[in-house]
Amino acid sequence: MAVDLQMPVLIVDDYATMLRIVKNLLKQIGFENVDEATDGGAAFEMMKRKKYGLVISDWNMQPVTGIELLKNVRADADLRATPFIMVTAESKTDNVVEAKKAGVSNYIVKPFSSEILKGKIESVLGKF
Amino acid sequence: MNGWPNDRGLYLQLQRLSEFINKTKAEIQALKPSVMKTDFLPKATDQLDAIVEATAAASHRIMDSADVIMELAGRMNPEDSQKAMAAATSIFEACTFQDITGQRVTKVVETLKTIESHIDRMIAAFDETADGAAQVAAGVESGEAEKPEGEKKEGKSSTLDGPALPSHAPSQADIDAILAGDN
Asked: ipTM, 2 decimals?
């Protein structure tokens, strides 16, 4: 089944620069319906109000981190099936394992290219 | 009689140790830890914050220009348009440096704050406002030296340790292998 490029995507990062970069790369891939949040708490509230087809979140944020957001999402009956990609400059094995145990759909290490982003989204949502 | 040489040796060792401690105290006093706390560290932190702000502002200007290139690409012939779009994408990808730089700098600032808290404790321990370095060097106890260290702040935070150095970081392929494995 083809990926619906009109699906709402939520990107979460506390750096305005990264939000702009990811939003732009998503736009080039074909996703136009992109919302932004600057920490895990704000993102979770937005997810409660609107159904997102994909969440792409940074890990290292305050006050609510990306891993806490992931755990909250996976613990919520209405949200637990939401595809969730973690993006972080931190690539320690323990953190990757923690994210995997928490139910992350995929994990991207910064810095990354448009091709990597597209490939990871395809591995989660399917080819498009 | 049997114990005398050993006792004397022990006494001499203790005397040398005492002299060493007093000399170290004087050297620490000479470093002027209060100046380091009130002047050097805040200045260093401000400079590092300025780096983050400057790189963020520069990144946005660069991306503004990349946006213009992408807009112009739409008016070009297909071949040139593709090249211009690829160049603009490359610019956006390269701008991720700002996020990583920011995280590294933040980690350094946190380290400076940890040093600052240690200096706080050192100042309290040596009580430099009392009688000055000379008395400390002479072994005068300030009364503060035995203060407990207080609460340590360097416990693991809920965030991460910051970006690893490239030589120490697992690659995207390593990460993919972990995710695909049975860990």
From this structure: 0.79
